[in-house]
Write a structure and sequence with these properties.
The complex is a heterodimer of chains A (150) and B (148).
Chain A (H helix, E strand, L loop, with lengths): L4 E5 L7 H11 L19 H10 L7 H22 L3 E3 L23 H9 L4 E8 L2 H12 L1
Parallel strand pairs in A: 1-2, 1-3
Chain B lengths: L5 H13 L11 H12 L4 E5 L6 H11 L10 H10 L1 E2 L19 E2 L3 H10 L1 H11 L3 H5 L4
Antiparallel strand pairs in B: 2-3
Helix pairs in contact in B: 1-5, 2-6
Classes of the chains: A alpha/beta (150), B mainly alpha (148).
């Protein structure tokens, strides 16, 4: 197992993520790999786009083909980031949601096991991963999400 | 599709609450989502922070410990961000995101959560949030006081 650890903030959306990401960008410079904000000079190592790609593909994630096509690039990017910065941090509130389409508020909420869970289960065999989940009470989360996506 | 509006919001939410779990795990069943993530990486490796506690020192102390930050200085504008949530939600299509009430600009169109629907949402997720309280090491009363 690699000596560093990946710290991954996975969402949910509309839970103060932008405030947290700005705080991370300011306080964890050099280790915070995104969600990138305009004007920030952040290292990347292809980790952020690899993670995003792995959880937004069609739901073939339980197959060997998915594993080979999607997990390998993520694992390679994590290993590289750990090698260079020790304990890289990634924050992307969209990692935890499956698919949300504008104009389909509420019925759009998918009830499938999200690809992220399967991805993390595999990656955790090779890397130490800390997962941060930010939450919000449903009575304010639902209208906030509607306002964002409707 | 109907244009985004208070009426459309209430209609969609009402339909959603009739059967929020048509095929399995509800998206808003936070406890189940946490349990799934714990199963993937191990219970001790999953951490939670609540938006409702973002203005407290404890929130930023927890974040600082997790991310290895020496000083847990909270960022600015937290109060404004929370105020938007309590007063209403500006519909994004009509309000530029950058002016989403953070600078005191009155939104032209907002939606609000009616009390009756708020209670129905809380009732729908009461069992899930009771489990969530246990996962967070809080009492249900404590979590409920935050709006859950």
């Amino acid at each position: 197992m690699a000596s560093g650890r990946l710290i991954l903030h996975v969402g949910f959306p509309k839970t103060g993520t932008t405030t947290l990401q700005r705080w991370l960008a300011k306080n964890c410079a050099g280790r915070y790999l995104g969600k990138a904000a305009p004007g920030l000079d952040l290292p990347d190592f292809d980790l952020f786009p690899a993670l995003r790609a792995a959880v937004t593909r069609p739901p073939i994630w339980a197959t060997e083909r998915w594993a080979a096509a999607e997990i390998a690039p993520v694992a390679k990017a994590i290993a590289r980031a750990i090698e260079v910065v020790g304990s890289p941090i990634v924050s992307d509130e969209n990692l935890v949601r499956v698919i949300q389409r504008r104009g389909r508020a509420f019925p759009f909420l998918q009830d499938e096991e999200p690809p992220l869970v399967g991805l993390l289960a595999v990656l955790a065999q090779e890397f130490e991963i800390e997962v941060l989940v930010t939450l919000r009470a449903q009575p304010t989360w639902l209208p906030s999400n509607y306002a964002e996506l409707a | 599709m109907a244009a985004p509006s208070q009426q459309d919001f209430e209609r969609r939410l009402t339909e959603f609450l009739i059967d929020p779990t048509p095929t399995g795990v509800s998206y808003c069943d936070w406890a189940s989502r946490i349990v799934h993530l714990r199963g993937a990486v191990g219970p001790e490796h999953v951490h939670c922070l609540l938006l409702e506690e973002m203005s407290t020192p404890e929130y930023w102390q927890t974040a600082a410990a997790l991310f290895g930050v020496q000083t847990a200085t909270p960022p600015k504008r937290i109060a404004n961000a929370l105020a938007v949530a309590e007063d209403g939600w500006a519909l994004r299509d009509l309000i530029p995101r950058a002016a989403n009430n953070l600078d005191g600009v009155a939104p032209r169109t907002t939606i609000v959560m009616p009390d009756e629907l708020r209670e129905r949402v809380r009732s729908t997720y009461r069992a899930s949030n009771a489990r969530l309280a246990g996962l967070l090491g809080k009492s249900f009363d404590e979590l409920s006081s935050l709006g859950y």
